[in-house]
């Protein structure tokens, strides 16, 4: 795998953040969200998240239901 100092630092940060969240994805995202809000407040930024109209799992479930319907 090709690497450079920036990618190495990114990977190390992700590993550190994963350990802080005890390998729990929900906690990882919550921690990241909290960090973003703190940085936004510190630097006077406004953070706007996009809206997801349909989740991946809902779309996959609909696809599966269509596949099970008789032709």
Helical percent range?
55-70%
- Please report the distance between the alpha carbons of the first and last residues: 47 Å
- Structural class call reads mainly alpha
Count of the domains:
1
Q: Quick one: biggest sheet?
A: none
Strand content: under 5%
Q: Which descriptor suits the 3D outline?
A: extended
Count of distinct strands = 0
Provide a count of the helices: 3
Q: Which parts are unreliable, with pLDDT below 50 for 5 consecutive residues or more?
A: none
Rg, Å, rounded: 19 Å
Mean pLDDT: 86
Order of helices and strands: HHH
Textual characterization of the structure:
With 71 residues, the protein is mainly α. It has one domain. The protein is 68% helix and 0% strand. The longest helix has 19 residues, at 25-43.
Overview in brief:
With 71 residues, the chain is mainly α.
SSE topology sketch:
Elements: H1 5-20, H2 25-43, H3 56-68
């Amino acid at each position: 795998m090709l690497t450079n100092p920036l990618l190495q630092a990114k990977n190390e940060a992700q590993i550190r953040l994963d350990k802080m969240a005890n390998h729990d994805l929900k906690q990882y995202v919550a921690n990241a969200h909290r960090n973003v809000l703190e940085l936004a407040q510190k630097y006077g930024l406004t953070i706007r998240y996009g809206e997801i109209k349909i989740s991946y799992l809902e779309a996959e479930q609909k696809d599966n239901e269509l596949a099970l319907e008789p032709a």
